[in-house]
Amino acid sequence: MAEKEKKEKKVSEQPETQPESREQAQPSADCEAELAAVKEQLEKAAKELADAKETLLRTAAEYDNFRKRSAKEKDAAFGNGVSFAVEKLLGVLDTLALAANAQTEDESYKKGVLMTLDKAGAAFSAMGVEEIEAQDKPFDPELHAAVMQQQAPEGVESGTVVQVLQKGYTYNGKVIRHAAVAVAQ
Questions:
Q1: What is the pLDDT of residues 45-100, one digit of tens each?
Q2: CA-to-CA distance for 23 and 4, rounded, in angstroms?
Q3: Is the N or the C terminus of the chain less surrounded, counting Cβ atoms within 10 Å?
Q4: 155 burial via Cβ count (<10 Å: 0-12, 13-18, 19+)
């Protein structure tokens, strides 16, 4: 029995739990205000994050565009430099062509000029410089410069190139020098 009394004593020593009042069961006004403040901070942080993300994406896109534009400008500057140099050397090529076509009794001289002309042509080709095909082609103002008109030989249409007075050249599709031509009337 002593054990039974001890158990009853322990049960009676424990404080009785009282039902919570309605005020304690519902969140207090302070908690609601704090919750609203935290929600507002969360929304503000989410907006700042979205703004920062958008700024980062725009900056990355601007950098990518800048990189591409810089590479394009670098290639264009190099191409312009090559075009300028080739344009200055075309006079030398023309002179070599005249020397190769000139009458001479010294065959080794003529052979040397022809070899030099071939090497110069090969060097231009390796750089991407191409001769504009003009002879017996329809006149194209983007490629040819009409210097004169001639009576059309029989069987040749009007507007056809009948004589090339000076060769024209392109570099990577860009005209360096227009071909000076005579066009059939």
A1: 999 999 999 999 999 999 999 999 999 999 889 888 888 999 999 989 999 998 88
A2: 39
A3: N
A4: exposed
Q: Within a domain: residue 160?
A: yes
Establish if 169 belongs to a structural domain.
yes
For residue 145, the tally of other CB atoms under 10 A from its CB is: 16
Domain membership of residue 51 (yes or no) is no
Dist. CA 172–CA 82, nearest whole Å: 10
Nearest 10 degrees: CA dihedral of 94, 98, 100, 103?
180
CATH, residue 140: 2.30.22.10
- Which tokens is 63 given? 């950098």
Please tell me the number of Cα atoms within 13 Å of 182 on its side-chain side.
11
Give the strand pairing for 129-131 and 169-171.
antiparallel
What type of residue sits at position 107?
Answer: E
Reference 169, options 117, 127, 118, 119; nearest CA is 127
Tell me, yes or no, whether 113 lies in a domain.
Answer: no
pTM above 0.90, yes or no: no
Q: Inter-axis angle of helices 107-127 and 29-101, to 10 degrees?
A: 170
